[in-house]
Structures are given as C-alpha cells and as structure tokens.
C-alpha cells in the first residue's frame, strides 16, 4: 500500500513539475535566433529557376523534358559520391555525366557533346526567381553581408550572376571548387565560415534543398529552407530555423523590428 501511495505521489509531483515547466516556457519563451553576421545562399533552384533548362535538357533527351528533375537529382547524387569517395570533378562535368546516365537508363542515344550543349550554357543562363532580386536588395540595404555558397564552379557562378543581374548584390562568391568537397559535407560549411572570419553559429544558410539546410544545421549554422515548388525538407534532419515560401517572406522576418 505504501508503495502504491509513493508511486501516486511521484506521478503527481511529475505532472506538477511538467506543468510548471510548460507555464515557465509560456512566460519566458525561447530567445529568438541571433541576427546572422553573414547570410550564405545556395544558387541553383534557391535563387535561380532551373525550369528554364527543361527545353534544352528535353531536346537532348528526345523530347523527354519530364526527365529534368531526374537529371538534376542524379547530378546531386553523384556529386555526393564524388565527396564520399575522395574525388572531385567540376559540377558541370558531373552534370554532363548525369545526363548521359539518365539517357542510357531511358534507352536514349546521346553523345557527350550533346550533353554539354544541353547543360553548360543553359545552366549559366538561368533566370532568377521573381522574389530574389528585390529580396537581396532589401537585405543588402539593411546591412547584411551576402555570400553565395554553391556547388557550381567559380567561373560558372560568376557567369550565372552576371546573366541573372545579381553580381553586384553579393559581397563574395564561394564555390566548393576551392575546397573540392560538395555540399552538404560539414567541412564545406565550416570552411565557408572560416573564409568570412566568423563562427558557424554566426551564419545563416538559405537553400531550397533539404540536404543543404541539413548540412548547414549539422555544421552549426542557422538555416532557412525556401519551399520552392516540389521541394520539401528532410524529416530526419535537424529542423531549419526558418521555413518560408520565398525570399520575400524570409526578408520580412529578418528585417522585422
């Protein structure tokens, strides 16, 4: 009987304790995320719209423009294979190889030259999403340091920004080409922070890829996931600090008084 009474008292105490904690959390909510010293941006699909490549990739694949997402996901997959196996080829070369793989899987004849024509220049000419330019301008005017962190090559991202009219909006461009480790390798985010002279927890990584925000969070950065059409976050990863529909929404949050 004494044991039962003790158990009841223990449960009552536990419930009371949990209630007190819950009440305290209501009265003293968790502190908001600190203002980042540097905002890092992924480029492809986050800032630039990949849909414009549907025509060139589709033409190379015998009219199968529906294979564009498979090609891009295959390119990302094998860029991770490169880092996991200690190898490195430029992102464009991985993209060409991925397109040839997709073609072979679907019994489509394609040459390496055809694949290069479908990918290299079109990838460098992607238009920005409608919300991007004004969002970047607002953040820059507010005094944020804006840096791109991309799997694309140095020459590639420079051409992309020139063609998209975004070149002057970034304080610096960083490419995995200089460290030869594709995102989401943790060392890539740590390296990026070091390049900017900050700690990882002083940075915010903005991306439309769950694997990218997952890598950034695991490396100690804040992360913002942009829900571009067809994009979802990885449910087994650490949650992003912000989940927004577009850059306009994120800008409104960061600039909120």
UniProtKB/TrEMBL annotation:
> According to the lineage, what is the superkingdom?
Bacteria
Instruction: Kindly give the CDD domains that the UniProt entry links to this protein.
Output: HAD_L2-DEX
* Gene3D superfamilies xrefs: HAD superfamily/HAD-like (3.40.50.1000), Putative phosphatase, domain 2 (1.10.150.240)
Any one GO molecular function term: (S)-2-haloacid dehalogenase activity
Q: Is Magnesium a UniProt keyword of this protein?
A: no
Q: Write down the chemical reaction(s) this protein catalyses.
A: an (S)-2-haloacid + H2O = a (2R)-2-hydroxycarboxylate + a halide anion + H(+)
Q: What does this protein do?
A: Catalyzes the hydrolytic dehalogenation of small (S)-2-haloalkanoic acids to yield the corresponding (R)-2-hydroxyalkanoic acids.
PANTHER family, alphabetized? HALOACID DEHALOGENASE, TYPE II (AFU_ORTHOLOGUE AFUA_2G07750)-RELATED, HYDROLASE, HALOACID DELAHOGENASE-RELATED
Family per record = Belongs to the HAD-like hydrolase superfamily. S-2-haloalkanoic acid dehalogenase family.
Report the protein name in the record: (S)-2-haloacid dehalogenase
**Which species does this protein come from?**
Halioxenophilus aromaticivorans
